[in-house]
Amino acid sequence: MLTSPANPITIPTHLPTVDAFEQWERQHPHEGSYEFVRGRIIPKPAMKQDEVDIADFLIRQFMQTPQFAQKHTLMPEVDAYVDLERRRRPDLLYLTNEQRQAIRRGERVPAYFAIELLSDSESYDYVLEKLQDYFDGGAQLVWYIVPKRQKIFAYTSPDESKAYKGQEVISAAPVVPEFEFVVADMFE
User: Fold this and answer.
1) Going from the N-terminus, what domains does the chain have, and what CATH number goes with each?
2) pTM across the whole model
């Protein structure tokens, strides 16, 4: 067992499944959130104030798409399930209306399109592990936003990406083709 410095709760060092982890979460109310990856409980820091403008920009852009009108949504910090041993929590998660209905029925849903904001504490290996998890779970697209470089890396597989910056237009195709914008607009 470990004690989290941010929370005075005891965090188990290993649990076998997402179910066991979520049972522990229900029994130990706490502030903050966690990801669960093959027995590891990974603290997930809340979105920082300097990231709020980026998330707000993305949500407002998404609200202009036909998918938003069809009750699809882009939500901050929602669980995305990979399998019985992995649960990630992207900074923003695209959910179809069908996925939202599945969640209401108590079902677990994967990420088809996840957006992550790169933080200073994330290593390259950690980013690669997260990307692999999203694609193992069925993702078709993952954006990694690097605010310090004002770039967005669009991954269509764990091994294929394209970097966008400046006046380049990024699109969330094939998942949400109408969700597109000039990268520089997000960093104004």
Assistant:
1) 2-43 (no CATH), 47-186 (3.90.1570.10)
2) 0.90
